[in-house]
Amino acid sequence: MSNLSHAPASHISNQFKWGGVLLALGIVFGDLGTSPLYTFKAIIGEKVISETLVFGGVSAIFWTLFFQTTLKYVLITMRADNNGEGGIFSLYALIRRYGQWVLWPAIIGGSFMIADSLITPPISVTSAMEGLKVLNPSVPIMPITIGILVVLFLFQQSGTNRIGVFFGPAMVIWFGMIAILGITNLSGNLYVLKAINPMYAYDLVVNYPGGLWVLGGVFLCTTGAEALYADMGHVGRRNIQVAWIFIKMALLLCYFGEAALLLKYQGQHLTAIDAFYGLVPQWFLIPSIIIATAATIIASQALITGTFTLFNEAIRLNVWPKLRVEFPTDMRGQVYVPSINWLMMLGCIGMVLHFKESSNMEAAFGLSVTVTMLMTTVLLSFYLYTQRVPKPLVLLVFLVFIWIEVTFLVANLAKFAHGGWISLVIGLALIIIMYIWFAGKNLKARYKRLVDLNKYIPTLRILSNDMEVPKYATHLVYFTMAEKPDKVEDRAISSILHQQPKRADIYWFIHVEVDDKPYTATYTSRIIEPEEVIYVKFTLGFRIVPRINILFKKVVFEMVKNNELKIESKYFDAESGNILGDFRFVILKSFLSVENSLSLWDNMIMRLHFILDRLSLPDDKAYGLDDNNVIIERTPLILGKTENITLTREY
Predict the structure, then answer these.
(1) How, if at all, do strands 2-3 and 471-479 pair?
(2) Class of residue 143 by CB neighbours under 10 A (exposed 0-12, middle 13-18, buried 19+)
């Protein structure tokens, strides 16, 4: 087996560097870090400000950050890393070999996290812009927010490598600012700190009218925890854990400062004061809005790039149709998916136009994240079980976090009619697409017939040396689903022999396998018949885009260099590895034959699957092949047993 990757042996998750901590501040904490802009606004809502509401709200925030963010994600979930990579699909890849059922929590969680990516940029940027209303209530917020979002999405195609170095310092300024604002407002009001007592949160939920529904607003303080786990591979677990100490202190100081401020306005509504910008002195208001806007843009940027990674993983794990994936920078793991970028931009603009204000977006925001966290808890508990963690401890972890998250889910469902339904509709639509694609791929694989390749070797040898047959290609390459070199699809043999015979000097059969590790890049080659038939198997991680055109040329060059293969061509330069000879790839594209006997459900799934297939990226583009050396052949796919018709000849 040979390695195609130049990745370092030790992963970033095992390294601690202060530069990594700074990078973590700029990449993974944006969503969590900007939550003080809107969390208390969601808790108070249209209710009258009271001591029970404020003390109970800040107490619930304190313990939510402890249980959900610190305990569940920073200390437990981040240990479930897949070679340093995190996120719900990375977690799924770790445990999918233990049972097929784990696909469903992964699909549901991934779908609702994508739905969350359509609401986080609008609510974050809108919340920052609403600070302008403190200066002038008539300032048009929507056009400014939409303008910022459009610029943000237009910038994605160039990547974040250039400005990424500014993200860390910018977020240090943000967290430093909210900490100082919190301390300033806590001065002389330290009695607010008694809300650390969890009984205040209990009193809010049990005794305050509608207290359970208030938790829907409290939940917004931890919505970025799932994104924190997903971005772990970019900066490393230890760097995130160290950075969280500083960030949590800044967040708590800010939240308690907001609580101290709100207690001064008991008996009034939030129209009298902005929970966050009320902390800011008048002379510092404009700079604070600028800093907050920068922080929300960074938070949105982190979630957008995380969404691109999520789609790339879904494509590689066969739960999403193929899309064009690009590499805007040399940063490891960073990808850009053009079609998703523009759809997200339109979705975010639609959210702003529909909801208009950040307070109207809160219901749609919390609901999707709660579902994702629930699915992560299910997968995490099963992962701990597979790692032979004591069963009582696994059960304790499962029950504690399921209880917390189900409570938050119920609280968020109260906002269903006020916008939460949008998140559910988007999430369900994504779940349906993922299921149709995955089920259709499985049905096709089930009915594709493999034959013994060795049986056809003599015929292929004769054809390869038959000078009376016009040469079709010097090197003819087929993709195969066969995991072993002695098997191949019957339709590939039919393409070579039974239609117009395709004479070639060498027949290549390539199998691409997705590995459960994120950045695997290896291959094995097997010479079935010297100078006639060769089988190559690529094993690529689920975060590696299969650029087969480049990888295959590298394999051929190495085989020539090792004297395993001879290419007698004056156009081949063994020193540089440039192959300008005749390499032709044949893509066998299936279409649903009319000769099928499927159940009503399977027939519907396959028809919808082929509709998605027509809309998805063509196979040659998905494999990174050049147009000038690719042939597409369409072959009928017959599923199930066709009807046996008796035909009688009449004279």
Answers:
(1) unpaired
(2) exposed
pTM: 0.85
* Token digits of residue 100: 């097929």
| Tens-place pLDDT, residues 12-30 | 445 667 677 777 777 788 7
Contacts of 1-6 spanning 24+ positions with Cβ under 8 A: 1/522, 1/523, 1/524, 2/522, 2/523, 2/524, 2/525, 2/555, 2/558, 3/521, 3/522, 4/521, 4/522, 4/523, 4/538, 4/551, 4/554, 5/519, 5/520, 5/521, 5/522
d(CA 375, CA 114): 14
* Res 332: pLDDT: 56
Q: What was the pLDDT predicted at 346?
A: 93
Nearest Cα to Cα of residue 617 among 328, 305, 338, 344? 338
pLDDT of residue 438: 92
CA 508 – CA 527 distance, rounded (Å): 9
Handedness of CA 327, 328, 333, 335 (dihedral sign): negative
Report how far residue 436's alpha carbon sits from residue 607's, in angstroms, rounded to the nearest whole number: 9
pLDDT beneath 70: ranges in the chain: 1, 4-16, 18, 158-165, 329-334, 363, 567-581, 593-596, 638-645, 647
How far apart are alpha carbons 378 and 402 in whole angstroms?
A: 8
Alpha carbon of 328 to those of 107, 231, 233, 331, 338: distances in Å? 27, 18, 18, 9, 11
> What is the set of domains in the chain, with CATH numbers?
19-438 (1.20.1740.10), 449-637 (no CATH)
Q: What is the CA radius of gyration of the chain?
A: 29
> Quick one: pLDDT at residue 568?
61
Q: Which residue has the tokens 């993983």?
A: 313
Enter the DSSP assignment of 313. Answer: H
Q: What is the pLDDT of residues 142-164, one digit of tens each?
A: 899 999 999 888 888 766 555 55
In total, the chain counts a number of residues equal to 651
